[in-house]
Design a protein that fits this description.
The chain is α/β, with parallel strands linked by helices and about 250 residues long. It has a single domain (about 1-245), classed as Carbamate kinase (3-Layer(aba) Sandwich). The protein is about 40% helix and about 20% strand. The chain has 10 helices and 11 strands. It has helices at about 1-5, 20-25, 35-50, 65-70, 75-100, 120-130, 150-160, 195-200, 205-215, 230-235, and strands spanning about 15-20, 55-60, 105-110, 120, 135-140, 165-170, 175, 185-190, 190, 220-225, 240-245. The strands form 2 sheets. A 9-stranded mixed β-sheet has the order 4-3-5-2-1-6-10-11-9, sandwiched between helices. α3 (about 35-50) crosses α5 and α7 (about 150-160) packs parallel to α9 (about 205-215).
Length: about 250
């Protein structure tokens, strides 16, 4: 039994999981695929039952793309605020899926929308996690010109997470080029923050990467669609690509 307990001991006790808005669409061009919300909710439930404290940051690209709106002449700050509202919709969708799976969940928004979500308060978020609740962070950082990747890095640092888990769809890590377009693209099992920044790899934006670098927050980039992907990442199994201060995470 002792050996079995050792196998199931998670490497990380508190994590932030970053879900892109595109993932919520389930491969469609727009909207929310309910099967995605249920699938991710069930994975989060299994991880939570292992004693891992789980926070989630959601994007909103399946509903609104601020960059495209800006290209059509919309004020950038206004477009970004609209994108923050889109993340709230995704957060509520995931909250509902988690609660239907029996997982106690709280959504905290960086924008003040008290009818549907708590305001983001760091100490309250940590208390929810300590009580075994899943916390969903919506509305990014609450500031325009900041991505939800930056929000994920910031929230992970604020709550003292052991790792930031970045999910991708149909891409099992970080490559030297887009593997869907370049068959010669090389996958990295591990890479340093500086190499990721200098090589301009599409991990996350430079601000988010710099935050992780300065605070030595490990990032695990992996394919969400892989079997038991979140659970395997939490356990420390080799999955996807590890971004840290060293080329190999020991």
């Amino acid at each position: 039994m002792a050996a079995h307990e050792q196998i199931v001991t998670p490497k990380y006790r508190r994590i932030v999981l970053k879900l892109s808005g595109e993932a919520f669409s389930g491969g469609a061009d727009f909207g929310i695929d309910p099967t995605f919300s249920i699938r991710v909710a069930r994975q989060i439930k299994r991880v939570s039952e292992m004693g891992v404290e789980v926070a989630v940051v959601v994007g909103g690209g399946n509903i609104w793309r601020g960059a495209q709106a800006e290209q059509h002449g919309m004020d950038r700050a206004t477009a970004d605020y609209a994108g923050m509202l889109a993340t709230v919709i995704n957060a509520l969708s995931l909250q509902d899926a988690l609660e239907r799976e029996g997982v106690s969940t709280r959504t905290q928004s960086a924008l003040n929308i008290q009818q549907v979500a708590e305001p983001y308060i760091r100490r309250r978020a940590i208390r929810h996690l300590e009580k075994g609740r899943v916390v969903i962070f919506a509305a990014g950082t609450g500031n325009p010109f900041m991505t939800t990747d930056t929000a994920a890095a910031l929230r992970a640092i604020e709550i003292g997470a052991g790792a930031l888990l970045m999910t991708k769809n149909n891409v099992d890590g970080i490559y030297s080029a887009d593997p869907r377009k370049d068959p010669k693209a090389r996958k990295f099992d591990s890479i340093t923050y500086l190499d990721a920044i200098n090589m301009r790899l599409e991990v996350m934006d430079a601000t988010a990467l710099s935050l992780c670098l300065e605070n030595k927050l490990p990032i695990i980039v992996f394919d969400f669609l892989a079997d038991r992907s979140i659970e395997r990442a939490v356990m420390g199994e080799p999955i996807g690509t590890m971004v840290s201060s060293r080329k190999s995470d020991e």
